[in-house]
Amino acid sequence: MARCILAKTVLWPALLEKAFLVAQGSSYAFHGSDAAADLYMLTGWIPEHIALHAPGFQREKTWQRLLQAWHQGTCLLSLGTGTVVDTTVSDTLRTFIPLHCYAILSLDERNDQRTVTLVNPWKTQGAPAPFVVDDTPALLTCAWEEVCALFDTIAVNWNPAEFAHADEVHASWDWSADAGVCPDHVEAAVSDQYHLELPPGAQELLVHLERHRLYDVRETPEFIAVHAFHTNAPQKLAQVEHGGEMGVYVDGRHTLLRLSAQADAAHYTLAVSRHGSATRPFPLYSLRVFSQDPFTLQRMPAMLAHRAQLQGAWQGEGGHALSPRFRHNPQYAIMVHSLPGSLPQLVARVTTQAQLPVQLALVRGKQRITYLGPPTLITSSGPYTRGLALLEVPAVQPGDYTLILSTLAPVQARFALTVECSAPIDVERLPAEGAGMYHRAAISNTRWEIVLERSMSVELLVSSDEPESLHVSVYDAHTVLASAAPASPVSTCVALHIRMLTAGTYTVLVSPPGTHRTLDVYSTQPLALYPS
């Protein structure tokens, strides 16, 4: 009897199930399943999820695409219900089970009637309580319009053998460069970027992103997506959350982008983007591209030979270049050493909170900058971008530079700065404005009095709420001792440094007349400051 029982026992389903869970990195208590991801693991066919209630869902085009592929045998299909199934769309349909998967057995179109035949896999073994529906048949036939209303998603798996060309890269996001955002547990938008080159007139291609490990669902979820941007040449982008062909963020293992290549497009930047907790490293991922046309896929840019990583914070000061508080932004001195045979390449990147607009600016010289403008400004990262700013200088002269990290408005937030160069570099944070000096400040329209009890070095900074053609002069009785004006025609701040000023009373005058100007005085010894 025992021998007979053993002879009828089928072991391979249990072994397959166990192997599947091991491959998932999970146990029998895993948090759920996904038909497209499961079939991908079993068959290697490319997974895609089509959200039936998404704003961009195209019912007619989707039907034609799936119907053609189904009859060609190039896809596998299944349907998934949501948390609630609204069966009021059809009185002829029986109850569907929420959060359940139904396999599609056929798609048919006859006499303008489009039908989908599907099967409930639980009916072969009996559904677990409380979803026992005795009068529901295993096989069901629905109109395509009913499918679009009843179900949440279509899970599609595409045969990779149908694509003449394919390539893949395996990588892991280098989170150490962005560790500055970790202590705040903020949402960080960070991406690895790849250059995709296509021949003119290329057909639609598939870009598949797979991450190799999911974290416990009790932890903060992490979302991934892949985006594509048409460029004129290989180009790394600072802003990857707007424009281009945007992928869908998912908290699962897989996401797919269908890239419709433009007729004249040859270059694309693919961004592997991530949203979620930055307190742990991003898992390994694979990026795969499938196309009917030849292409090249390369990660960019390659890390330059010399790298410096720093962390810091905005302390509630700073602002954009036209703000009178711009000078309080964090600033870094960069010394670029010479590179035999060519000019060095310089790349700087700052990352911070995902919704915080930031910008990088590079100027000549090793000193704190009060305002941006010619002739010292070399380049910037461009318009303010959220969460990340990237500055690239293909060729820079060896020497001293200042890098300014600015925000659109004063904030308190942490950041991480990475500076890369093909030549050796030295990077250090410049001291805050007036560090180690005595400070006095007063508000007036045009005139202040300064009283010094002894000789000292003095630095004057006049700021205005609105950009103006400011001119600052320091008088001793009726004699002009020093004056200054900004290099830019209009500015919100002008600085005047006097190396040595003897004891006495002096007048500071700002022209043209205006309202609400602030004078900040930094000195090596105490002094008195009065608006007048």
How many helices? The count is: 5
Helix coverage percent: under 10%
Q: What is the level-2 CATH architecture name of the largest domain?
A: Alpha-Beta Complex
CATH topology annotation of the largest domain: Cathepsin B, Chain A
- Intertermini distance: 111 Å
DSSP strand content: 35-45%
CATH homologous superfamily name of the largest domain? Cysteine proteinases
**Nearest-angstrom radius of gyration?**
32 Å
Shape: elongated
Uncertain residue ranges:
1-7, 126-134, 177-189
Q: Secondary-structure map with pairings?
A:
Blueprint: H1 2-8, H2 12-23, H3 35-43, E1 46-51, H4 59-72, E2 75-80, E3 101-110, E4 113-119, E5 139-143, H5 144-150, E6 153-158, E7 165-172, E8 190-197, E9 205-211, E10 223-231, E11 254-259, E12 267-275, E13 284-291, E14 296-300, E15 306-315, E16 331-336, E17 346-351, E18 357-364, E19 377-380, E20 385-386, E21 388-393, E22 399-407, E23 412-421, E24 425-429, E25 438-444, E26 447-452, E27 456-468, E28 471-476, E29 479-484, E30 491-501, E31 504-511, E32 517-523, E33 528-531
Antiparallel strand pairs: 1-6, 2-3, 2-6, 3-4, 4-5, 7-13, 8-12, 8-14, 9-11, 9-13, 10-12, 15-23, 16-22, 16-24, 17-21, 17-23, 18-19, 18-20, 18-22, 25-32, 26-31, 26-33, 27-30, 27-32, 28-29, 28-31
Quick structural summary:
With 532 residues, the protein is mainly beta. It folds into four domains: 22-158, Cysteine proteinases (Cathepsin B, Chain A, Alpha-Beta Complex), CATH 3.90.70; 173-211 and 218-277 and 291-300, Jelly Rolls (Sandwich), CATH 2.60.120; 306-429, Jelly Rolls (Sandwich); 438-531, Sandwich (Jelly Rolls), CATH 2.60.120.
